[in-house]
Amino acid sequence: MPSSVLTSDTLYQRPLLPSESHSHCKKKDDKPNLVILKVNSKRERSLRALVYCGASNNFVRLQSRARLDFEEVELPRSLLEVRLSTGVVVRTEKRVVRARFSYEEKKFADELIVLDLDEKFDMVLGMPWLARHDPVIDWAKRTIVRFRSSGATESDGPVGAAHAPRGACDPPAEAARGAAASDLSARTLTTERVVRESVSRIRRLRSDPI
Fold this sequence. Notes:
Layout: E1 5-10, E2 35-39, E3 47-51, E4 59-61, E5 69-73, E6 78-83, E7 89-93, E8 96-103, E9 106-115, E10 123-125, H1 127-133, E11 135-138, E12 143-147, H2 172-207
Parallel strand pairs: 1-6, 3-10, 4-9
Antiparallel strand pairs: 2-3, 4-10, 5-8, 6-7, 8-9, 11-12
């Protein structure tokens, strides 16, 4: 029997309450910024998918797998360790499927880790999905308005450590502060450059013979 390899992932099975976390992924009314999509597959319509930056990978509920258009991904035998938001660590054999589904006019083919989730969501689309498709989120309506990515949607597989697209996990206030800081930095650099160039020109004029 091949040896088992233990890999680790993080999945917030439910959002942390305000008293449990000071995450900036909340609205001013202290309600979590849950972005829940109603996605479709060839086998069934209206599957619930949670888009969540707190998940280090993409997951599909074991009981919902049959409702998707999917194929098994062959992997070496390994164990998966998933830490839930409650602090509980779940260990299970790692199983991955490549599922095809759509949201409005956008079609996806992404790899999802099969996990025994609760019945609230059929899928959790985490960091790999966010990094690959780069969605623009309307935090007021808690929905996706468009995707910055274009072209092929075939997944390269679950990503162990992906970087969130800029602003993907930021509500409007955080995004605005980030943009303001970026703009201030750019203006400061521009001002410093103008001052240096002006001083340089003055020195050249003083050194030139009349």
